[in-house]
Amino acid sequence: MTSRAESPGHWLDALADRIDGLDKADRDALQTYLGEARIGYDLIAPVIEPGLRVLEVGSGIGALGHYLASTGVDITGIEPADSGFDRIARLAEHVNAAAGDTGFSATARSAEDLDPGTDGSFDLIYSVHVLEHLPDPEAALAAMNRVLKPGGRMVHLCPNYRFAYDPHFAIPIPFWVPALAKALFARRIKDHSEVWDRLNFIGAGRLARIARNEGLSVLFHPGVMAATFARLNDDRVFRARHNGLAGQLAGWAASGPFAGWLHAIPPQWASPMAVTLSKPL
User: Fold this and answer.
1) Long-range contacts, stretch 95-99, CB < 8 angstroms, 24+ apart
2) Would you state the pLDDT for residue 235?
3) pTM above the 0.85 mark?
4) Are 167 and 224 in contact (CB under 8 A)?
5) How many CA atoms are closer than 13 Å to the CA of 136, on its beta-carbon side?
6) Which end of the chain is more exposed for a tag (fewer CB within 10 A), N or C?
7) pLDDT tens for each residue of 29-56
């Protein structure tokens, strides 16, 4: 079992070092997903406590789940592995082999299928860049709520499409019309059009309405957009994914004279958005 003293960054770096045989594209993708695992850990670290039962929705390559399990966290993972994400499934096999027997595994199922009769209940449910891919966010969040214990919390990180930009393809969404963006940036989207077509373009307003309809309180985290923009200057692989004009401007904004303004943007209007949804006792 991993010691709590071993940071997730050190553990994930060691994991990457044990994975061989990847081409450059897969190696860069691995580093991207490991970066998201670090972000995911930072997201939930303030609320992880001994004895909690945790559900990860959209486990991806499984790196964060393996790390948490190695520290003794009782964690369950689900991963739908839809088409368009074949690389995730391939990298997950490498991660599972390199991580060894941590006790963590992710089952291939969707969030909408969660059921308290078969899954039990959880103290904490979290996701990292998953909500925007759900075909029916209302049904998925309702199912998550059904398996959330009274007094439990969900923590989610995803793009906020109130901010008219899509980070998957690094393109703006003119006038908040996805069909117009697809037409204008068809060449950029065409090789992964199935990913674009499955985006639900969820925004803070829709997410808050769903949560309140489920009887959950809503708290948007400040400073997430500023931290993401700063990452453009610190993370080579992340910067390469956002190498267009928008990414360059965001990197400049994070280090330029207007960096303080980023922290002043209300979190409901910033992207990405991190939100805690709490269930009353």
Assistant:
1) 95/15, 95/19, 95/61, 95/62, 95/63, 95/66, 96/62, 96/66, 98/15, 98/18, 98/19, 99/15, 99/62, 99/63, 99/66, 99/70
2) 62
3) yes
4) no
5) 10
6) C
7) 898 899 899 999 999 999 998 899 999 9
